[in-house]
Amino acid sequence: MISLLQWAHRTYRTNFPEERPKHSDALRIGLLGASNIAPIAIINAAKTHPEVIVVAIAARDPVRAHAYAKKHNIPNVHTSYQALLDDPTIDAIYNPLPNGLHYEWTIKALQAGKHVLLEKPSVSNASEAHSLFHNFHLLGNGGSLVVLDAVHVRFHPAWQKFLTLVDRANIAEATSSIWIPPIFAPDDIRFQYNLAGGCLMDLGSYAIQTLRQVFGCEPTECISASARLMPQGYDQDIDQAFTASWKLPNGGIGTIHADSFYEGRYLQWLTRYMPPVRSPKVEVKHREVVVQNPKTGMETATTKTVIFWDVLAQSLWHRIDIMESHELRSSATGEVKKRWTDTRYLKQYSDDKVGADDSWTTYRHMLEQFVNKIRGRQTGVWVDGEDSIRQMKMIDGAYTKAGMKIRPSIAPRC
Questions:
Q1: Three-state DSSP class for 58?
Q2: CA-to-CA distance for 9 and 1, rounded, in angstroms?
Q3: pLDDT at 140
Q4: CB 59 within 8 A of CB 74
Q5: Of residues 47, 108, 114, 120, which has the active-site annotation?
Q6: What sign does the CA torsion over 282, 285, 286, 289 have?
Q7: Whole-prediction pTM value?
């Protein structure tokens, strides 16, 4: 009962955050587009950050832009994306535009002297990623501007705790699975090839990110990849579900399952009229570790499995399962004398190191580090440009292995 009340209290403070007084030199952020994700990703997150104010928006539809600004108390509405970038009072841009527009408008924002919080995936393909993040005259290697690939799931203390429980050199296999029910229309911008859409570019990018974090290195090869395409009548260059496996340098195998139209159900007779639900999870299985006892002629073999449940919404709920399966057996014959399993569960919603309370979302933790980077302060978690390039290379490789086209570059090079 206490846990339920704690969850309700935390959820309320997450969804209705109390606005903090703002510093006189707070970063002034403008929004590109009147997106559905911005209230969660930046507007609510900014309310509890004393150094951030969302001050402006621009959208293709001026009526929608004004309505959006009124709803979210955004004081300024610009007539175009470029007009917003040209506003000298704006310090940084949040770019949640369709994937195919990320590269063009991020480059333009940098040219206008703005920092950019860039929704994942950062761009359409590895070529664009290389071009963007190697803009040394604008970014940190020669300039002073910051671009952050907004992989928010990496910033929460629960995910960071999970990574400490993984023995990377000893991983046998890891699987990252992310499913959602069909909440988006088949013709949504997420599923348009010319806008660099596809399940792998959306849910799949999270699965790849978490897999790369688990192993802490890049794969040596993509050994298999397959896609379930959109139904006939819709874009046949678009995947609505994707599965792929990679071989890693330690010999382990990493696999992703992503499905934007998941329709499986538990207890079909009971749930057939309910939306299908399946919690995203990251599961890491380690190789067997054997400890010999020469005095007794016995050995203890231990196999460790660690699971992170609900990586996407970990600030609302998550659970980390640590399971260690043991066998006591004869060293000479291998005869098993005893088997048992030790299981424990962990949760971590707050992080005292950064002064975060348990209501901070993954996006709020990410915003903290974005501001720290801009201010020249130390960052606890970060996604650098090379990391973003490697991410897009892995996505491109999976599409190629599946016999599909790499997502196109639709914007002219700047």
A1: strand
A2: 12
A3: 64
A4: no
A5: 120
A6: positive
A7: 0.93
Output the six-digit token pair for 359. Answer: 């209501």
The mean predicted confidence, pLDDT, of the chain is 93
Residues 6+ apart with CB under 8 A from 282: 162, 174, 175, 176, 177, 210, 211, 214, 307, 308, 311
Identity of the amino acid at 302:
T
Polymer length of the chain? 414
Instruction: For residue 185, give both structure tokens.
Output: 């229309």
Contact predicate 82/108, CB 8 Å: yes
Task: Report the side by side order of strands in the sheet with 27-32.
Answer: 76-78, 52-58, 27-32, 92-95, 115-119, 147-150
CA dist 6 and 17 (Å) reads 16
Identify the DSSP state of 21: P
* Spatial contact of 363 and 38, defined as CB atoms under 8 Å apart: no
pLDDT tops 60 at residue 93: yes
What are the tens digits of pLDDT across the range 312-335? 999 999 999 999 999 999 999 999
Separation between Cα atoms, residue 302 and residue 304, nearest integer Å: 6
Q: Kindly list the distances between the CA atom of residue 372 and the CA atoms of 27, 142, 251, in Å, as whole numbers in the listed order.
A: 11, 19, 37
The answer to whether residue 120 is catalytic is: yes
